[in-house]
Amino acid sequence: MEPNPSHPALARNKAVPDPQVTELTPHPWTRAIPAADGRSVRLEFTSAGPPCQQLGRAQVEEEASTVTVTLLVGPLPGADCSGRRAMIAAPFEIVVPLESPLAEREIRDGS
Predict the structure, then answer these.
(1) Fewer CB within 10 Å: N-end or C-end of the chain?
(2) Max CA distance (Å), the chain
(3) Is 78 helix (H, G, I), strand (E, B) or coil?
(4) CA of 58: how far to CAs of 8, 46, 71, 87, in Å?
C-alpha cells in the first residue's frame, strides 16, 4: 500500500529561496519529478531547515542532454549554528522552472 501524500504527517514543506542566506553550500535532493509540460521540475529534499539550513537558491544549468540542479543552503544572518543542535530533519520541496522543456534530458543533482 502506497503512503498517502496528502496526510499531514507526510506533507512536504514548501521551500522558498531566501536571498539573505549566507555561507551557501550544495545540498543533495532526493527526488526529481518533472511537470507534465516539462517546463519545471519539483525537487524533494530533506533538511534541518531554518535558521541553520535555509534554502538560499536553486542553481540550474541546462545543456543539450542534461539539466543539473544544485540546491544551495546555509544559515540565516545572525543564526547561532555552533554547538549542539537537535538532530531533526524535515521534508521539503521546491518547484524549479526550466528555460527549455525537459524532453529527454537527464536531471542531475549538482551537489
Answers:
(1) N
(2) 46
(3) coil
(4) 26, 15, 5, 24
